[in-house]
Amino acid sequence: MTGWTEYIAAWACFLGAHMIPALPGPRGWLVARLGRRGYLAAFSLLSIGLLYWLILAAGRAPYVHLWDQPGWSRWLVNIAMPAAILLGSLAVGMSGLVAALALWAGSHLVANGDLAHAVFFGGMGVFALSGVARSGLPGAFRVTWQRLLLAVVIWAALLHLHPLVIGVSPLPA
């Protein structure tokens, strides 16, 4: 499976994995069998795996140029990402995570000027903003040195692993 077919299949699996458990029946059945923590762990791992597949599929889709990538766009991403990681790490509840994902998607949308990535980051932005609409903006933060350290470690890992995992350096040229 290659090109647009893989990309569409990855989107279908990602969206299905997030829509089906949102229904009361399947989610209740899964929580009853796995327990709340087991369900959340399994759902998180599945989501990360499907997100990674979707990222790779976007990179393998045929290149269709939409706009030039301005040089400042990588600076935008490199400023937005530490803020997004801090937001996701320090906010209490899911509202911080979905707000961080919206910031991630919006900043990456500007820096990627091809059709597959515009659909990917635009779609993820809509997906995240729908989560913000449901949960609201973060209202409470738990600031501890452990959470701050975790945010720094996540940021450093993403920055350094991006070329190996995604195939593109996030650093400005």
TrEMBL record:
Regions that span the bilayer: 38-58, 79-103, 115-136, 148-168
Lineage: superkingdom: Bacteria
Keyword Transmembrane applies: yes
Domain NnrU: 8-170
Membrane topology label: Multi-pass membrane protein
Keyword Transmembrane: yes
Cross-referenced Pfam families: NnrU (PF07298)
Main location: membrane
Keywords from the named record: Membrane, Transmembrane, Transmembrane helix
UniProt subcellular location: Membrane
Protein name: NnrU domain-containing protein
Provenance organism: Paracoccus acridae
